[in-house]
Amino acid sequence: MAREFSTVGVVGLGTMGAGIVEVFARNGIDVVAVEISEPALERGRVTLTGSTDRAVAKGKLAAADRDALHERVHFAVGLEALHSVDLVIEAVPEHLDLKQRIFAELDRICRPETILATNTSSLSVTEISVATSRPNQVIGIHFFNPAPVMKLVEVVRTVVTAPEVVADVEALCSRLGKVDVTINDRAGFIANALLFGYLNHAVGMFESHYATREDIDAAMKLGCGLPMGPLALMDLIGLDTAYEILDTMYRRGGRDRRHAPVPLLKQMVTAGLLGRKSGRGFYTYERPGSPVVVPDEATPLATESALADGARAITKVGVVGSGTMATGIIEVFAKAGYEVISVTRGMEKSAKVCEAVKTSLNKGVVRGKLAEADRDAALGRISWSATLDHLADVDLVVEAVVEELSVKKALFASLDEICKPGVVLATTTSSLPVIDVAMATHRPADVVGLHFFNPAPVMPLVEVIRTIRTSPEATATARAVCAALGKTGVVCGDRSGFIVNALLFPYLNDAVKMLEASYSTADDIDHAMKLGCGYPMGPFELLDVVGLDVSLAIQRELYLELREPGFAPAPLLEHLVTAGYLGRKTRRGFRDHSHR
Ligand SMILES: NC(=O)c1ccc[n+]([C@@H]2O[C@H](COP(=O)([O-])OP(=O)(O)OC[C@H]3O[C@@H](n4cnc5c(N)ncnc54)[C@H](O)[C@@H]3O)[C@@H](O)[C@H]2O)c1
Questions:
Q1: Whose CA is nearest to atom 15 of ligand 1?
Q2: Active-site annotation holds for 142
Q3: Among 165, 415, 545, 563, which one is least packed by beta carbons within 10 Å?
Q4: For residues 491 and 88, what is the distance between their CA atoms, to the nearest angstrom?
Q5: Is the pTM of this model over 0.85?
């Protein structure tokens, strides 16, 4: 029989603690909520009230249940109030000495059978436990932010945590409606170990002006379907907390440079820019604690101003290539009202592309998303050619031929001879340096990358890559074109992986390394990222969809360009590729798909 928890204590009512109080009280458990001072207690009370009021306003909680919830919470200053609770969860700032002091006090105050739990994200639960005389009753219960919403709880057992304590806490998590994964005491556990390298990398991109905060966040939301971008997430976590987590992970987790906090973070913390809780972090909020972002001096002006930036008028577009991407891109431009000239290497190929575009447009008609007249008009805007000479008077060329530098360079050299002055020349490469292609022409200022995602008619994101030679006018033109296509264009520098792949694949690679180290299972890791961070797919699900060979190739390029030891491809990924386990396309990758 699992132990009954009728009263729990929560220490620290900040970002996490206030949410944890709500989780318990919502599930009928009495809570003693403790803070260090009256003002801090009042802040915690306001946070709890704000959150439950929002739940009532959204119809997710009845007003009577809210009132009952509040009656279950007893607020107090000082740890002495916790003398008779069954379980304590500590959620004070991420400092080992502070947590150890609190655990020593709790050990003295609480009944001998009380379980003492920490919500630490990165500190050693073992080191915290030895500050007490009952390390076997100390455990990590790691909730995710916001605690009332996120389903995952990581239960962290140390080498001395008693098995019945683990079982009791697991049963408690189920009672709270949470899904738990139980793991050993390692820096960052599952989710943060995979998340924080990515978050820090995104901050580094921002710090180096590689892309704006809005573009970095939009790229990850729209390119990967994440619930929020990395910088908005840093603001939610709290930059002081994020700094401490990174710093601890760096020291505990093998001094991986990717966890060394980007210098900007420390500066922001020192300047009091802590994220949502202080009203200002990477973004500016309506007021401290508010989730509502308000414009500030860094907020970009509306897209209409692109013309003011020197964007050129585009009416006629050439698309070169006959593959999946070219086909999708032709459709996107034609649907948006552009006159399109498709150029392939022969009329047979043109006929095929034409068929593919028709089939796709017809699907839109069948699904009721496109009127027949609009389909016909779109098709009427496309002309089919097998010679580049027809691109002499287009305003924009989008190249989507095979991913080979020599082929692309030769093509751009030809375009340079054929096209009129002022045309913007774009490559859809996903892995080659755009500057190499640009330098094959005599007009590198007019060359940009336009990285569409597959399938182009569906995916809302386009990465606009500006090289060190690209003119502001060409960049503005590319961005304005994306907007006219109904896509979000994000502008970034010319580095391997641009924004999305550079941030995504190292995370996937880290997940493989974690599996390889036998820290957890593929199922638990997938669960942790979906339920703890709201990702649409876990890393192993995604790797099997993308293809292990494709993932390995991207990861290798990132490693070769940046020489970052942490980016070295996971040996397990290499072995699976060598063995021909490439994911869904071969019916076996990290999982066996043969029966599905
Ligand atoms: N922020 C996140 O997204 C997140 C997610 C999961 C876990 N965590 C972990 O949760 C813990 C708390 O983080 P947070 O982001 O909520 O921090 P926070 O800074 O928002 O809140 C900490 C609270 O602890 C209070 N406090 C400080 N000393 C205290 C004491 N001696 N007694 C009682 N209260 C005291 C502070 O007044 C403050 O209200 C950390 O260990 C952190 O790593 C954070």
A1: 15
A2: yes
A3: 563
A4: 48
A5: yes
